[in-house]
């Protein structure tokens, strides 16, 4: 059985083990000056074309006997080093992708952005030095950490992560509030950033406790040089009542505070929505009718995480106690996309500009948000995990994708997926798509049989001699559970036929 069948699976497993070190020793150890770390990072962030394009025409790994990069790999101190030579050889057979001229600049709420990638309002954009570093690395803008008239008293610790199997960071929980800098300090940060980086976009996220504060904050942010005002109607773990997601769940308060914000500024206003609600369109419409220019969505989802079954304490653990906090990261992306779609499918919101966020980690994630109608993107959790450097593959991966598809400008993909999301009663229910089994790829593990029998329709049996699956067509409903669970990618949807 050829290992070529499983090259992508093996390569993905290899790179998923990479620690993505800062100042990676593997790169320093390579005697041939290969960009070992950035190549692996590109693969990790689904930018295979970018990784391939970084390889030299003649791969030196074939003749490198000592493998100093593998010896230097810090993963080896934990268990096994990443087989760097195997990764390089695997992708060296791929064709290079030509990067044609593609424009990532996009207009959002009347503001010209060099690309759609912004830091979202959080700790990743909370002082001058941090944001300046991000701007230097290629981020087009920042939604600065929410500014209020008060400085919150925070707890320690306030972050934790959800892991599953070999994945250490499926989701992330935080119980941090708004900026821990004074109003005066934050205003100075914004002024310096706009002075030093005039072409970058400053979104001033604000949170007031009454109408007067919303108006005053909007006025102060405008005077400080902000390009856009974002109203934080959605933080799920504020200690004060009547702020954050308490506002976002109440359309009347959303309208009241949006109007108050509009009194203090002539800048574009984004209303940041909470996902802790069934129908986001209602508060979003209230915001737009009250003077908002666009919508930002989603903020974090209320959650409880990592319950210890020995002492029944949860995380983040503050002296044995915790609180409901905001859940974010890759796991929330499908939920975020659903809310984005619902707003774009709403007649009263279909033309509203949307800044999308919630689980964006790779250029593919970003493209999905844009395909559902977002013109701007905000990112936090993946930056907290991997650093500002993820912008390299966000930009490069997006450019290579757009170029390969013949697009000239990123705006061409905005909303392109919306026609393909329809109500359930509009889906074809008169045909069936049976699974197709690739006998050459099948390794006989029986996972398809187990899942079909225990969680499906008992439509697969196994040949006791070959361990190959046999489809029982009369029982198969075409649910494709088998293709979803197959670890060897040996099952895929077949031809669709009439029932």
From TrEMBL:
<dbReference type="InterPro" id="IPR013785">
    <property type="entry name" value="Aldolase_TIM"/>
</dbReference>
<keyword id="KW-0274">FAD</keyword>
<keyword id="KW-0520">NAD</keyword>
<dbReference type="GO" id="GO:0046872">
    <property type="term" value="F:metal ion binding"/>
</dbReference>
<keyword id="KW-0521">NADP</keyword>
<keyword id="KW-0288">FMN</keyword>
<keyword id="KW-0411">Iron-sulfur</keyword>
<comment type="function">
    <text>Involved in pyrimidine base degradation. Catalyzes physiologically the reduction of uracil to 5,6-dihydrouracil (DHU) by using NADH as a specific cosubstrate. It also catalyzes the reverse reaction and the reduction of thymine to 5,6-dihydrothymine (DHT).</text>
</comment>
<dbReference type="InterPro" id="IPR009051">
    <property type="entry name" value="Helical_ferredxn"/>
</dbReference>
<feature type="domain" description="4Fe-4S ferredoxin-type">
    <location>
        <begin position="433"/>
        <end position="462"/>
    </location>
</feature>
<comment type="pathway">
    <text>Pyrimidine metabolism; UMP biosynthesis via de novo pathway; orotate from (S)-dihydroorotate (NAD(+) route): step 1/1.</text>
</comment>
<keyword id="KW-0560">Oxidoreductase</keyword>
<dbReference type="GO" id="GO:0004589">
    <property type="term" value="F:dihydroorotate dehydrogenase (NAD+) activity"/>
</dbReference>
<dbReference type="GO" id="GO:0051536">
    <property type="term" value="F:iron-sulfur cluster binding"/>
</dbReference>
<comment type="similarity">
    <text>Belongs to the dihydropyrimidine dehydrogenase family.</text>
</comment>
<dbReference type="Pfam" id="PF01180">
    <property type="entry name" value="DHO_dh"/>
</dbReference>
<feature type="domain" description="4Fe-4S ferredoxin-type">
    <location>
        <begin position="467"/>
        <end position="496"/>
    </location>
</feature>
<dbReference type="GO" id="GO:0004159">
    <property type="term" value="F:dihydropyrimidine dehydrogenase (NAD+) activity"/>
</dbReference>
<dbReference type="InterPro" id="IPR028261">
    <property type="entry name" value="DPD_II"/>
</dbReference>
<dbReference type="GO" id="GO:0000166">
    <property type="term" value="F:nucleotide binding"/>
</dbReference>
<dbReference type="GO" id="GO:0005737">
    <property type="term" value="C:cytoplasm"/>
</dbReference>
<keyword id="KW-0479">Metal-binding</keyword>
<dbReference type="Pfam" id="PF14691">
    <property type="entry name" value="Fer4_20"/>
</dbReference>
<dbReference type="InterPro" id="IPR017896">
    <property type="entry name" value="4Fe4S_Fe-S-bd"/>
</dbReference>
<dbReference type="InterPro" id="IPR017900">
    <property type="entry name" value="4Fe4S_Fe_S_CS"/>
</dbReference>
<comment type="subunit">
    <text>Heterotetramer of 2 PreA and 2 PreT subunits.</text>
</comment>
<keyword id="KW-0547">Nucleotide-binding</keyword>
<comment type="similarity">
    <text>Belongs to the dihydroorotate dehydrogenase family. Type 1 subfamily.</text>
</comment>
<dbReference type="InterPro" id="IPR005720">
    <property type="entry name" value="Dihydroorotate_DH_cat"/>
</dbReference>
<keyword id="KW-0285">Flavoprotein</keyword>
<comment type="function">
    <text>Catalyzes the conversion of dihydroorotate to orotate with NAD(+) as electron acceptor.</text>
</comment>
<comment type="pathway">
    <text>Amino-acid biosynthesis.</text>
</comment>
<dbReference type="Pfam" id="PF14697">
    <property type="entry name" value="Fer4_21"/>
</dbReference>
<protein>
    <recommendedName>
        <fullName>Dihydroorotate dehydrogenase B (NAD(+)), catalytic subunit</fullName>
        <ecNumber>1.3.1.1</ecNumber>
        <ecNumber>1.3.1.14</ecNumber>
    </recommendedName>
</protein>
<keyword id="KW-0408">Iron</keyword>
């Amino acid at each position: 059985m050829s290992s070529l069948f499983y090259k992508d699976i093996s390569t993905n497993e290899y790179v998923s083990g990479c620690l993505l070190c800062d100042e990676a020793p593997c790169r320093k150890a390579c005697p041939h000056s290969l960009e070992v770390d950035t190549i692996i990072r590109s693969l990790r962030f689904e930018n295979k074309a970018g990784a391939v394009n970084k390889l030299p025409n003649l791969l030196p790994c074939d003749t490198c006997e000592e493998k100093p990069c593998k010896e230097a790999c810090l993963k080896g101190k934990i268990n096994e080093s990443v087989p760097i030579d195997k990764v390089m050889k695997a992708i060296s057979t791929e064709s290079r992708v030509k990067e044609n001229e593609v424009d990532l600049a996009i207009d959002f709420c009347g503001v010209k952005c060099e690309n759609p990638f912004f830091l979202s309002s959080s700790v990743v954009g909370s002082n001058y030095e941090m944001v300046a570093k991000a701007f230097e690395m290629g981020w087009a803008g920042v939604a600065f950490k929410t500014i209020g008239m008060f400085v919150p008293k925070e707890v320690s610790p306030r972050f934790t992560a959800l892991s599953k199997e070999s994945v250490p960071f499926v989701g992330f929980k935080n119980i941090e509030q708004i900026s821990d800098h004074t109003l005066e300090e934050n205003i100075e940060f914004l002024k310096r950033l706009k002075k030093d980086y005039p072409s970058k976009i400053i979104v001033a996220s604000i949170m007031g406790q009454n109408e007067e504060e919303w108006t005053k904050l909007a006025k102060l942010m405008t005077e400080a040089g902000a390009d856009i005002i974002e109203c934080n109607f959605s933080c799920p773990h504020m200690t004060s009542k009547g702020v954050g997601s308490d506002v976002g769940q109440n359309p009347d308060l959303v309208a009241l505070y949006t109007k108050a914000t509009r009194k203090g500024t002539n800048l574009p206003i984004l209303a940041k929505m909470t996902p802790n609600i069934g129908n986001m369109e209602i508060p979003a419409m209230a915001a737009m009718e009250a003077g908002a220019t666009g919508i930002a969505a989603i903020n974090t989802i209320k959650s409880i995480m990592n319950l210890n079954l020995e002492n029944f304490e949860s995380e983040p653990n503050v002296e044995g106690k915790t609180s409901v906090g905001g859940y974010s990261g890759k796991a929330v992306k499908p939920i975020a996309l659903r809310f984005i779609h619902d707003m774009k499918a709403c007649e009263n919101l279909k033309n509203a500009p949307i800044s999308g966020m919630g689980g964006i980690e790779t250029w593919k994630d970003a493209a999905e948000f844009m395909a559902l109608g977002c013109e701007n993107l905000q990112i936090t959790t993946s930056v907290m995990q991997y650093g500002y450097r993820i912008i390299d593959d966000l930009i490069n991966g997006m450019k290579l994708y757009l170029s390969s598809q013949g697009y000239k400008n990123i705006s061409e993909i905005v909303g392109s997926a919306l026609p393909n999301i329809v109500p359930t009663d509009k889906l074809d229910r008169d045909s069936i798509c049976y699974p197709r089994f690739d006998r050459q790829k099948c390794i006989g593990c029986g996972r398809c049989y187990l899942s079909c029998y225990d969680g499906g329709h008992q439509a697969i049996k196994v040949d006791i001699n070959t361990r190959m699956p046999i489809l029982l067509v009369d029982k198969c409903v075409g649910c494709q559970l088998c293709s979803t669970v197959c670890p060897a990618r040996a099952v895929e949807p077949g031809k669709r036929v009439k029932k």
